[in-house]
Amino acid sequence: MYKVVLIGASGLLGRAIAQGLSQQTKWQVVQTAFAHAQAPQIMLDIRDKDAIARFVDEQAPDAIVIAAAERRPDVCENDPALARALNVDAVRAIAGAAQRHGAWVLSISTDYVFDGTRPPYRHDASPAPINAYGRSKLEGEQALFDATRNGCVLRLPLLYGPIASWQESAVTSLVPAIAASTGAAAHPAVMDAWATRYPTFTPDVAFVIVQMLERHARGEPVCGITQWSGDEPMTKYDIALRLAKALGVDAQLTPQHTPADATPRPRDCHLDSSVLEALGIGRRTPFDVAIRQVLAEFPWHGEATRTAP
Ligand SMILES: NC(=O)c1ccc[n+]([C@@H]2O[C@H](COP(=O)([O-])OP(=O)(O)OC[C@H]3O[C@@H](n4cnc5c(N)ncnc54)[C@H](OP(=O)(O)O)[C@@H]3O)[C@@H](O)[C@H]2O)c1
């Protein structure tokens, strides 16, 4: 039976991948997580190289999907050792162990490997990250290819999807400020209108990953660098307008036309998805449809009263 190990099954993307894999009844799926591990997930700290080697040797999977990472740019900036441990060293250790078993490895990366000045970016465009997160993810890509020839990188842009807390996605993290900008005691919310993003729905990414695994399972693995992206350009200000509409609130939003983040972020990293599209891989749910699904599953009741399940 085809066996897939999913590393980082508790995260925003990992949960969507786990859900996508649950439809594949003919595959054996083993999930790992760390701080938020819940049965049937196995607890695995990917900073522990020996534990990774033991785990991969025990499982002997056909394929490994790495969705575990440190993906918060500010944390990566302030704790480069943690960023390196998770985004570089762990990828090398997992890929090295996979190589011994002939397992294919799919490692998730980011559009932040680019500097955002010359979009759209093909998969073979020259990366030039401008922050610690982007640099660590680029080094992680190189670590994957140093450790195995049977590896694939999937670069993704800003993600949103089913959440366990508003802050889990940079899309839904706007909701508390949008809500606070409505009503009598409103605080107008300032939203970035400088950087263009391509919000991408995690269940769509999961669909792409399952299609890639299906190809591998039938002996046609995709190797090298690939990219997947939503196709609706939006600034955070545009996203906030659409969120307000979906929430049915009259928000007071102010566009901010110059970058204001403490950690530098690229302006427009639009990822060209043509390599996967040419293979017949892909699915794009319109943003307005997908965000309504997300909000229906996790309704706004006011920040103070809402806790993550
Ligand atoms: N979110 C985005 O907008 C976005 C955009 C582009 C690319 N990406 C990439 O997509 C991938 C998934 O990101 P995400 O947003 O799903 O991240 P996330 O929600 O922050 O999830 C991170 C995952 O990493 C796991 N993890 C953290 N420390 C670990 C450790 N020491 N040992 C084992 N597992 C550990 C977490 O498990 P526990 O919580 O159980 O510890 C969790 O499952 C990453 O490669 C990220 O760079 C994300």
TrEMBL record:
Superkingdom to which the source organism belongs: Bacteria
Enzyme Commission number(s): 1.1.1.133
Family to which this protein belongs: Belongs to the dTDP-4-dehydrorhamnose reductase family.
Species whose genome carries this gene: Paraburkholderia edwinii
Known cofactor(s): Mg(2+)
Catalytic activity: dTDP-beta-L-rhamnose + NADP(+) = dTDP-4-dehydro-beta-L-rhamnose + NADPH + H(+)
Pathway: Carbohydrate biosynthesis; dTDP-L-rhamnose biosynthesis
Protein known as: dTDP-4-dehydrorhamnose reductase
Alphabetically ordered keywords of this record: NADP, Oxidoreductase
Cofactor note: Binds 1 Mg(2+) ion per monomer.
UniProt keyword Secreted, yes or no: no
Keyword Oxidoreductase found: yes
PANTHER family according to UniProt: DTDP-4-DEHYDRORHAMNOSE REDUCTASE, METHIONINE ADENOSYLTRANSFERASE 2 SUBUNIT BETA
Annotated RmlD-like substrate binding domain residues: 3-298
Primary role: Catalyzes the reduction of dTDP-6-deoxy-L-lyxo-4-hexulose to yield dTDP-L-rhamnose.
